[in-house]
Every structure is written in structure tokens, then in C-alpha cells.
């Protein structure tokens, strides 16, 4: 479970060989049903950030692109003031919410770092699960 703090928070696992990493938000700290995230970082088994040159968002189950520019790729823009937000304009998608990052090649991964939305507590992730695999999830 992530805490309500706005600093970087770490979730250690593995290490496991993986090219694809999924963060699944199971709840929000405010129980509002949304998910927001300012930045994500994935570290190798030595605790070093994996180079982002080959990273891309492979999948996000929900993102807000009409009411505001809060698309999933915001988690990779290195700008803490921007963020990914699940859809809220016209509809609200139910939890859990997932975002999958393709690292571009396989690494031995051991940690995911999460930076919460900085301006409001709205949608900050509470309970979560992390999945890491060598092959795309669900045939993506």
C-alpha cells in the first residue's frame, strides 16, 4: 500500500527478468475510484534506474484526454506537475486500473518507484499490485 505522502515511494520485488511491467491500482487513498500518477520509474536488480530511451506505454485501461490532458504517457515525461488520470469526463471507469510499460528490452527488474500526483490527493494510489513479465500481458 502506498502512503499519502507526495514523495517518491518504492515497491521492491524480484528481481525478475522482464520487458513489461504493469502497475495495477486496486484502490485510491481517498476512495474516489480514480487513479492518478505523476511519474513512474523502474529499477534494475542493482537499484539503478533502467534507461528510459526505449520505454513506451503499451496499455492503460483508462485515461482522461477530453476534460484535461492527462494521458497515460504523462507518467514518463519527467515532469512531476503533469500526471496520468483515469477517465472522468463523461464517464468513470471502475477500479482496478492498469498501466503497462514496455521497457524496450529485457532487464532484471527489482523495484518500481511511484510519484503521486503533486497538486491534490485526488486519485492517489492506495493498494496496488505489480506484474512483471518477459512476454506481453494478455496478448497485447
Features:
140 residues, five-stranded antiparallel beta sheet, two-stranded antiparallel sheet, 7 strands
Overview of this structure, please?
By secondary structure, the protein is mainly β. It has strands at 8-25, 36-37, 39-44, 56-60, 84-85, 97-115, 128-133. The strands form two sheets. Strands 1, 3, 4, 6 and 7 form a five-stranded antiparallel β-sheet that branches. A two-stranded antiparallel ribbon has the order 2-5. The protein is globular and about 40 Å long. The two termini are 27 Å apart.
- Which word captures the global form? globular
* Sheet with the most strands, sense and barrel status: 5 strands, antiparallel
- Could you tell me the strand content as a percent range? 35-45%
The percentage helix is: under 10%
Structural class: mainly beta
Number of strands: 7
Distance between the termini: 27 Å
Supply the number of helical segments: 0
User: Could you report the average pLDDT, rounded to the nearest whole number?
Assistant: 95
Rg of Cα set: 14 Å
Instruction: List segments where confidence is low: pLDDT < 50 over at least 5 consecutive residues.
Output: none
Helix and strand pattern: EEEEEEE
